[in-house]
Predict the structure.
Amino acid sequence: MKELRFRIIMIAGAIALSLYLLYPTYQDSRNEKEVVAKLSTYETKIKKSNPAISAIELKEKITSIKDSILVNTPEYKSAREKRMKLGLDLQGGMYLVMEVNTAKLLEKLAKDPDDQFRQILIKAEADSKMTDENVVTIFARYLKAQNIRMSRYFGSIREEDDDIARKLEQQETDAVTRAIEIISNRVNQYGVSEPSIQKQGSRRIIVELPGIARQEEAKRLLQGQALLEFKMVKEPDFAIGIMNKIDEALAGLNKFDSSAVKSVAAKTDTAAKDEKLTAEQFAKEHPFFNLARLIDAQGRVADAFVKESDRDQISAMLQTPEVKNVMPDNVEFAYDAKPEIGDDGVKYYRMYMVNKEAELTGGVIVDAQANIDPNTSAPEVTMQMNNEGAREWARITGANVQKRCAVILDGQVYTAPTIEGKIPSGSSRITGSANMEEAKLLEIVLKAGALPAPIETLEQRTIGPSLGQDSVNKGLMSTIFGYLAIAVFMIFYYKKSGSFSAFSLMVTILLLVGVLAGFGATLTLPGIAGIILTMGMAVDANIIIFERIREEMVTGKTIKAAIDSGFKLSFSAIFDSNITTFFTGLILYQFGSGPIQGFALTLMIGLVTSLFAQLVLVRLIFDFMITKGFKINVG
Amino acid sequence: MRLFDNLHIDFMGKRTTFYILSSALLLLGLLAIIFKGVQFGIDFKGGSEIALQFEKPVEIEKVRNEVDKLGLGNVEVKTFGDATGVLLRTELQELPKNVLLKVRTNIESVMTNVYPGVAMTITDSSTSSLTYTFSDPQTASVINNRLNEAGYQSEKVSEEETNTSISVRLGIADLIKEDLSEKYADNPFVVQKEDRVGPKVGKELKRDALLAIMLSLIVILVYLGFRFKFTFALGAVLALFHDVLITVGVFVVLYGVIPGFNLEISVSVVAAFLTLIGYSINDTVIVFDRVREQIKIHKTLPLEENMNLAINRTMSRTIITVFTTLLSIIILLIFGGEVLRGFAFALFIGMITGTYSSVFVASSFVLEYAKRAGSKVQF
């Protein structure tokens, strides 16, 4: 009995763990039903206000609102985050494979492209499509064949062709990195949940934008050049004065102080008093500062930290007419591109108040380089501007010494260093990066505004949310029917033992799905097909064993002996058949992408859990029945 | 309940029948592949594929006529799911030149409607978009809006205030969507799915698929070579080849025969083949395992008789295991939906031929080899 108990505990433990890991998914589906019920009233409202809307458009609209609610509201958020990850084909979303258009990059980098250049480039591009060789290599070959040096179009006369070719290839890789940064930046701004942007090989980018497939907006993310701007950060006195006014306007009061200095002084006094207020009272009396916590309580720096989840509210606040009244026309708020992670794991974004108008735009930057300052051993970024930019920059820096200038890419701040002094030569050093990584990021950003990263889309797949939902439903239905069909057959053909088999099949699937949830693996439609297939294959092991037991019983062995030898003799056949399927599963995982990988994964995990369930669990049940003296029959 | 108990059929004696049957199927398949050609999906060929969901049922013929008028050449139009769904597929990556010209004229006429005689230059043209530059940002902005209202996909090149350029997308999907939304104004549709695969990706996928299949066959050959002797491994792998070929043959023969049944070779169909390879070897292993056991027990019996005994004894097990797996696949075929249909069908055909070939073809091969080689076949 003791060894029975051990096995019972092990299996019970495995089942319990799976249930625990799957609970958020269950919770999430319950939440979803709740939200849909709540939205039905909203749906009628939409129909009333927009009677021309088609049923299909309405359905898509409601689905995206529902998804958005489930992702953002705190009470539903955790279940949604911890639930089983669904692939794009089940969630809806966009999948893109993009590649740097090297030919276009070369054209933009060339010093003096003439017709001859363009012709050779077109030939090189056409060739690379056939042979899959790098455009740079082919282009270099053509130039050499015509006895033209690379330095005619790139680099300087002193450089060797090979060196230039290598530098160009480096430019290509850099372009990919830039493109990834730009896309990540923009994707984050749109608030896509769980986006995935990855480099593949040296020239490709794989982008997955799951959830709400806002096609038109998503397409816009990948188009167009990045906008790099330099905007002055407002002085602390001024900024805090405005923020106070906003705060008061929101709190329902309308105190207009005549001088900014007085209000700062007044606020620093009340700040001391504020500490004695409770959190609730603080929220009521200072709605703005409650969400935008000043970094420096003394107000020497006017930046504030805003929680990621509060950003929407701040936007809403800034839209209210009362706040718009007190904000000057020429300033705006801007967020950091990268958040800081607080001790509580929450993402905080730094918020700055900057001039709306940019002093300078990125077109004037010629080059940027991240390196280590030899004197201080601190990371820094050197930036070079063209003549026009240098002149402007000299003027701007001269007029704004000791003020901060924010470097903004596509509307997000990457750094806001203080201007130490006038910079006449157009070559600046930006310090203040925490580490080399940050410096590298800044280098990418500065270049992104100046240099293009022309990318083209090689592959694009978009799945609408309703098709995704449809697939989920069909998948679920097939799984249930599949299980019933197989279970009924097993019980019918193998009687009591068949019912053991049916039970262990349920455990197999439970463990399989539990493992998927536990490892954060993604479930795709082929993945569901894999589950169904696993069901069919899982009972194979049992069938082999049961048939063997039948045979052994015919030779006259006792039921216990027949079971023993049945299990033992079948083991090699079971092992062999599962191993080969496992191997092909591995190969499939390597070869396939996204959905197919999902299939391979469920197949392989299913094999393992089914072996466990069929060999251990069913054996356990048999042993248990024998020990307790119950009758067993194998059909 | 017992089926197939106490079977005593002389399978190996009848093996000529199997040879004939297999050869016939293979020949049929080969002929179909040569004359009808294998239909690859856009995963491999490259192209565009759009699935539209209309509110009310549509007549496929009408949609087909509409799309034909666009001059895009060969565009497949079929039902997708039920009568309200339409699937459009074309091999084209980009608009053909004459269509491009027409679209450009249309776009420019919209512009001149807004500002007659407006000055514009085309500063960039790619396979999927045209970039126009105007003399001032205001013009660009207004024209951009007007184009969007007219249903074109137009965007400003940059958000800067000094921006004077706009980029108009010229995708095939865009053109089709534009046209259909005009012609079917009373029956609005939503795009359920839109796929665009470039030729480079398609080529790479073909190469990867072939590699994967070859690799699987080799891995299995090696593995079986270890578990049993080489002759067996070879026989088993040949049976697998036979299965894949016949399944592809069935796909090709039935392509287009059953309306609404999407039988092109897509990535998921290839995945089904790979799964087949891994699974179908199971039956072979079960039979050979038994043959090996039989030989150990009855050393003096001729190989043919041992094989027969083994097959007869394992028939019950073979049939029932395949039956349960087929059950699950049939459920998938019926309830799994449009997207998985090709995949499920490939598995369905493949498993049936797989069982047949593992039991009969593989063993026959080994038997023939043993008879020719004369020597005692080692296991």
User: Anything to note?
Assistant: Residues 254-269 of chain A have pLDDT under 50 and may be disordered. Chain A touches chain B through 82 residues (CB under 8 Å). The CA atoms of residues 151 and 157 of chain A lie 5 Å apart. The two ends of chain A are 27 Å apart (CA to CA).
